[in-house]
Amino acid sequence: MDLSNSSPVITDPVAINQPLLGSLPSNLMQYSVMPGGYPVPGMNVSVNRLKIGEAIVSGLLDAMKSSSPRRRLNVAFGQGNSPDEDPAYSAWMAKCPSALASFKKIVANAQGKKIAVFLDYDGTLSPIVDDPDKAVMSPVMRAAVRNVAKYFPTAIVSGRSRNKVFEFVKLKELYYAGSHGMDIMASSANYEHNAEKVTKSLLQAVSGVDGATVENNKFCVSVHYRNVAEKVLEVRPVIDWDKGKAVEFLLQLLGLNDSENVIPIYIGDDRTDEDAFKVLRQTNCGYGILVSQVPKETQAFYSLRDPSEVMEFLNFLVRWKKHSM
Ligand SMILES: O=P(O)(O)OC[C@H]1O[C@H](O[C@H]2O[C@H](CO)[C@@H](O)[C@H](O)[C@H]2O)[C@H](O)[C@@H](O)[C@@H]1O
């Protein structure tokens, strides 16, 4: 589903744990369920449409099967071949090296800078399993993410609903962007802290303007210039939205949009994560790390093979940070 033209708006910026950004526009929710149980956009009752629908469903299923990581693993490496023995894999690793093997280089570039960590959920923090409701995160992975969040601002950016991904991760100290980043939440403590920072800098900015006042509304900050002109300035995102935009938004929200001094690291495994990799590559800021066991066209700079390597990388980051403090 291409959501690139969607425009969520702020619906309820006040309540704690409610979306800062709103939900999917209704025109993107027009799905009906085909006989057989597959949801297909715009397909329903007439016979011709049914046949077209079946063809599309079958095409989608073929496409899904052929792009399945499991199938690609078999196709790419054949039986009994390990990835390391495969020339295509070696060529890919030269283009998109292991983030573990390149760890020293990554942290050397991060010296004196602030690292921000962005983590996709499925396939990154939890292994891909058949039943989406069983894609649980292991306790050791949760501990690794908890530790990372002690030292670096850390966000989960998932295609799942924000509530659902929170149910899996269960760490209140993180930031969460659900529905591919269209639904963003941070703990109230984080918001309050950042709202305070924003309030402070806005107060400085308007200090020379007679009649202008700044109001900290906890989740947003208003600049009142009623006594300067007859309005309140309210700024909110107009959204052409994807995970890349979500990362940019979170960096800004956290006051980490200083590309000279901040290194965002985004780890993800699927096509939707490419939007985030692309943003980091295009802004020449930070690193995208693709989780994949097979060669893939990617905008990421580095790769990790699976969630266990992701965990190792997160543990490396924590160890490095502790030693460099
Ligand atoms: O952005 P993500 O956190 O990676 O979420 C993307 C989708 O992940 C889930 O589906 C995938 O993982 C399932 C559990 O391992 C697996 O059964 C499914 O085949 C994968 O596509 C989730 O169910 C989706 O809602 C997310 O959009």
From TrEMBL:
Its EC number is 3.1.3.12. Its cofactor is a divalent metal cation. Keywords: Hydrolase. It comes from the Eukaryota. GO terms for molecular function: trehalose-phosphatase activity. SUPFAM superfamilies: HAD-like. Pathway: Glycan biosynthesis; trehalose biosynthesis. Transmembrane segments: none annotated. It is an enzyme of class 3 (hydrolase). GO terms for biological process: trehalose biosynthetic process. It catalyses: alpha,alpha-trehalose 6-phosphate + H2O = alpha,alpha-trehalose + phosphate. Gene3D superfamilies: HAD superfamily/HAD-like (3.40.50.1000). Belongs to the trehalose phosphatase family. Removes the phosphate from trehalose 6-phosphate to produce free trehalose. This is Trehalose 6-phosphate phosphatase.
